[in-house]
Each structure stands twice: as C-alpha cells, then as structure tokens.
Write a structure and sequence with these properties.
This protein is α+β, with helices and mostly antiparallel strands. 42% of the residues lie in helices and 15% in strands.
Amino acid sequence: MVLANTSFNGCFRIESDSVMGQGSFSIVYEASCLKDETKYAVKCLKKNNMNQDEILSLMDEVSILQELTPLCHPSIIPLHNFFEESSMFYLVMEAMVGGELFDRIAVKQFYSEKEARDVCKIILNSVDFLHSRKVAHRDLKPDNFLLVSAQNDALVKLGDFGFSKRCNDNANSGLGDLKTQLGTPAYIAPEILDKAPFYGSQCDMWSVGVIMYVLLGGYEPFYEAHKEEMYRKIMKGDFEFHSDCWGDVSMDAKILISSLLEVDPSKRLSARDALRSKWICTDDKLLAENDLTTTNFCKLKKYNAKRKVRAVVHSLIAVNKLNIMRQSKKLAEETS
C-alpha cells in the first residue's frame, strides 16, 4: 500500500459510467491507475456531506485498513491508497469484480452442505483474523462478502469496514470497550440492542451465526415484519430449527449455530473455537453427500432476491434523506 502524496486525479482516472455502488455518503466507481491501467474500486466521499463524527469514523476505517492491508490476509479487501483533498476523500480498494457471494451461490445448479460449510469456513477465517488484531467489524452480513473474480468461487473477501472499531475485549471486566449502537437489524447482536454499557468483538460472532443459519436454512432466524418484534426475538434468542427446513441438515451444524446464537456473549463461541468445531472439521465427502438443492436452496434463492430488493430500497431511502439534508442546509444558508 502506498499512502498518497499527490492528488487522486494525478494517479487515477475514474471510468465513465462505472458506478459500482452507492451509500448514504459515498459513491463507489471503477478507476484505472494512470501508471499501469490496473483497475480498482474507489470510494468517493464529499466532505461537505459529512459531519465531524462521520469524518472521525471514516478515519478509523482508514486507519484499520492501513494496519490490516500490509498483512495480506487472503479474505480481507485491501486498501491500496487513500487521498484526503480539499473537498473529497478517496479510498482506493481492490476491485471485487465477481459480485456478492450470495448472488454467486444463488445461481448454482447444485448446493450441498459441504458448499455451505466451505463458505462458513471462509467467513470464520476472516473474522478470526480481525479479532486476532483486536478489531470488531460490527456489520457482518451477506452483502459484505465479495468475490475477487467471476471465475473462482473460492476467492471471497470481506469488505465495508465503515463500522469497524479497534476494541479491547478484556476491558470493563471482560465486557469489552465498545459502546455505539449500530449494525444491520437482522444481524445485530442482542448486547447491542440491550443498550449494555459496553460490548466486545463477540458481537460479530452473533452475526456469523445468523449468516450460517441463512446459508443452511434459506431464511433469517429472527425475521419478523415489524422491526420491534424482531428485536424482541433477538434479545431473547428466540429461534428454532423448523423440522421441514432443517430435518436434513446435520446435527453438528445446528449445534454450531446454536453456540453462536447464544444471547450471553461470554458463552458465545469465538471464531477460533468455531473453526475447531466438529461440523467445520467434518470430512468433505460426508457433507457433499447431503444435497440441499431441492429443499432449502430454493428458500435461499428467494431470500437472496428479497435481500437485494431491500438493499436497493434502503439505499434509495438513505440517498433521499441525504438530499433532504442538503436542501435544508442550503436553505438555512440562504436565509441566514
């Protein structure tokens, strides 16, 4: 990674019609390096759209990625360059042209318990690495696991470190030292919803448990139409393995998920321990024989389609809110 001493436009060219994604405060474009034409994804943020807390959060994200990138972990999207200019921030990242992991799974013709297990192992390895570096991601969900290329299903990396934070899990009598309530509703840990004074990186392991449940069952464990009811179920750890969906899934997988969807974070399995669990270590041949194609895979495809629609709706809402904020700010400036 090279930290920038020159301007972004002096090093990179944003390609026309190359929007790769859009958030509340940022747009991600495809960009080419002027030196060798290597393709990158560049996250562009306008300073005047961000308040001081949001800028500080961005700097946390950049600082964490600057620490992680030189370690070259195969499952973490690296930060190649960062530019702070008079009106803009630019984060230059590896271009993940293979799309989202769940989208790739959804177009498969065959889906076995082994394939689900292999994905879970990749997820656990990335989280174990983060936690070994004393970093909590705090927004683990299917959207943030991306494929390097369209040709290789095994090259999966974790991105979007906007909510990530360095943490000390030993602080405050083992509770941790994180305080902020944030995350994606369906994947958020109960200790965050419970407004506990402190929490730690084990919040990520709850999210991993939800992802595993979706990968094997095809639906979210705590889903409710009303968010308040979903939060109530999360805080109680109120979920079950419905027999019509989970009858063919191995008991070891269900035991692992239950160990992750443990309301008490001190009793919740760590990433390191989950990687040593019986299901993760089960022989490939045995899991490959458990075909989920005609049962839960159909539910997973439907879930993925709904997830994509929700993501688009949430993005539009966020952009509309930002536009309203901009208009209000402009009006206030004009009338002052």
